[in-house]
Every structure is written in structure tokens, then in C-alpha cells.
Amino acid sequence: MTGSQYPESVAKHILGEILKKKQLSKRQFAKMIGLKYENVFRYFKTSYDPKLSTLSRWATVLKMKVRDLIKE
């Protein structure tokens, strides 16, 4: 099967929206999780599909639950 034959994921991470609500920049977030901004930039692409471990890391630094990072 090619990638286009798979159904599009229903759930989407809403990291950008959360950072905006918390008044955090992408650079600040990168620093919080201990990565360079260049390495974090991909997280904000609409096609990025983070692993559960990545979502868990985000939730920890943002003091949230993983489910709060997902929009269905």
C-alpha cells in the first residue's frame, strides 16, 4: 500500500495552539525540552505525526496531560 491509501489520522496534535495560549514561543518551547529550535521546527508541520513518547515529553514540560495535546 502506498501512503495515499492509508486513511488520514483523525487526531491531530495542537502544540501550536497550546503554546499560543501559554504565551510561549517556539524557541522557548525548544529550550524547555532541551533541543535546538531547528530540531523542534518540524513539530509544527501539519504532516508531523509524533510518537507517544514525544507527546509525553511535551506534556511533561508543559505541565499537561497527553490527551490535552490531541484534537480529534
Low-confidence stretches: 1-10
Name the CATH superfamily assignment.
lambda repressor-like DNA-binding domains
Instruction: Categorize the overall geometry.
Output: globular
The biggest beta sheet, please? 2 strands, antiparallel
Give the helix/strand class. mainly alpha
What's the count of strands?
Answer: 2
Q: How far apart lie the N and C ends?
A: 25 Å
The DSSP helix count reads: 4
Sheet with the most strands: spatial strand order: 1-2
**Domain module tally:** 1
What is the CATH topology classification name?
A: 434 Repressor (Amino-terminal Domain)
Mean pLDDT: 84
Radius of gyration over C-alpha positions, nearest whole angstrom = 13 Å
Percent in helix: 40-55%
Element-level helix/strand string: EHHHHE
CATH C-level category: Mainly Alpha
Q: What is the CATH architecture annotation?
A: Orthogonal Bundle
Strand content: 5-15%
Note down, in words, how this protein is organized.
There is one protein chain. This protein has 72 residues and is mainly alpha-helical. The chain has a single domain, classed as lambda repressor-like DNA-binding domains (434 Repressor (Amino-terminal Domain), Orthogonal Bundle), CATH 1.10.260.40. It has four helices and two strands, in the order βααααβ. A two-stranded antiparallel sheet has the order 1-2. The longest helix has 11 residues. The N terminus is likely disordered.
